[in-house]
Design goal:
The chain is built from 16 helices and eight strands. By secondary structure, it is α/β, with parallel strands linked by helices. The protein binds fe (ii) ion.
């Protein structure tokens, strides 16, 4: 059956990408609203961007209030800034949060309602031009049609999707990722690994997405540990930035599955960063999903060179064992270490399971989870 395959119009990837992006900035518009967070300013990343904009003759205004995973409040304020500062395009600088906020602001430009109006709807509303500059190697948001915005009143992470949310230009400069601390490098890298494996083992996988998903999984398993151990290893950082982009392209065209479906409710209820909530779920969810498509998981293991066994179940098991070891190596904390109390957690299991299923992502898993399956998995991962 014929399938669509979507990527950004222009991708500028590799060392020196920011310097090379000047003409692309100027083609997007004359004044940008830079959507970022205060840390980007402290690290000097914002200055690197503004110097590049000065060189290309593009004016800008800075909205640096996306200091956590974006909420409807942050988005609505950004929309007002975009209009009052008379900007005509957007640049996101940062991790997934500024990129997701940028997409929602671009979509809302000139719209009178609320961002929640778009949740779960098919729409073709055009967004204004967008440039995404990731400073972590993880979310892949620079290449996707998705944005996740928290509805503060409902305590729900809204998944909003439209082709018009794919950034026009993605600038992937690995130099930015060197400043990411260990925890951010580890959890965002694991987010990308989830994108790669979930998209390859999704019911919606297609021939083109599989290429990107497999390549990403291999690069991540070979380089994530190196980035955490030696933060200045630019070769490993470059490989991870490329992998995060590839994984983003993979899941943009094949969707994610059970891990992401179950991860968003944990993030919304307990304010756990996205990559970390994925990491908490990863091993248990993959073990659950494996029996629905052992051949798919075995193919990932064989491509990544961690299994040569002809038996699919044995090869797939090698992948889970490799991930188990990686999670220990990266020192992922437990829920109790994160300060999530068992009583509070158990009291919202029903809501989290309902919200997970409502997102539609768990249904992309070959082994379809019931609500009870999801509740049991949530219980299993509490430590
Ligand atoms: Fe993700």
């Amino acid at each position: 059956m014929a399938r669509e395959f979507l990527v950004p119009k222009k991708i500028i990837n590799g060392e020196g990408a920011l310097a090379k992006a000047a003409p692309a900035f100027a083609r997007c518009g004359s004044k940008a609203l830079i959507v970022t967070d205060a840390v980007m300013k402290e690290l000097g990343n914002l200055q690197m961007l503004t110097e590049a904009l000065d060189a290309s003759g593009v004016q800008y205004s800075v909205y640096d209030e996306v200091n956590a995973e974006p909420t409807d409040t942050v988005v609505h304020k950004g929309v007002r800034r975009f209009a009052s500062d008379e900007c005509n395009f957007l640049i996101a600088l940062g991790g997934g949060s500024p990129m997701d906020a940028m997409k929602a602001i671009a979509l809302m430009n000139g719209y009178e309602g609320k961002i929640s109006d778009f949740m779960g709807k098919r729409f073709t509303r055009p967004a204004c031009p967008m440039v995404a500059i990731p400073t972590t190697a993880g979310t892949g948001s620079e290449a996707t049609q998705f944005t996740i915005i928290t509805d503060t009143a409902a305590q729900v992470k809204m998944l909003i999707a439209s082709e018009s949310l794919i950034p026009d230009v993605a600038v992937i400069d690995p130099a930015f990722t060197k400043s990411a601390p260990h925890g951010v490098t580890a959890t965002t890298g694991l987010d990308a690994l989830c994108h790669a494996i979930e998209s390859y083992t999704s019911r919606k996988a297609q021939a083109l997405s599989e290429v990107f998903s497999l390549s990403a999984a291999k690069l991540i398993l070979e380089n994530l540990g190196k980035c955490c151990e030696t933060p200045d290893d630019l070769s490993a950082r470059s490989a991870m930035s490329l992998a995060a982009l590839q994984a983003g392209i993979g899941f943009n065209n094949a969707s994610v599955t059970i891990i992401h479906g179950m991860s968003r409710p944990i993030g919304a209820m307990f304010h756990v960063p996205h990559g970390l909530s994925n990491a908490l779920l990863m091993e248990a969810c993959l073990r659950f999903a494996l029996t629905g498509a052992p051949g798919r998981f075995a193919a990932v293991a064989r491509y990544c060179g961690i299994a040569s066994d002809a038996n699919d179940n044995a090869a797939a098991e090698s992948l889970i064992e490799r991930i188990h070891a990686l999670l220990i190596e990266l020192q992922i904390p437990t829920m109790s270490e994160l300060g999530i109390e068992r009583g509070a957690y158990c009291s919202v299991l029903e809501k989290m399971a309902d919200d997970a299923l409502a997102s539609g992502s768990p249904q992309n898993t070959w082994r379809q989870p019931s609500k009870q399956d999801i509740i049991e998995l949530y219980k299993e991962i509490y430590r």
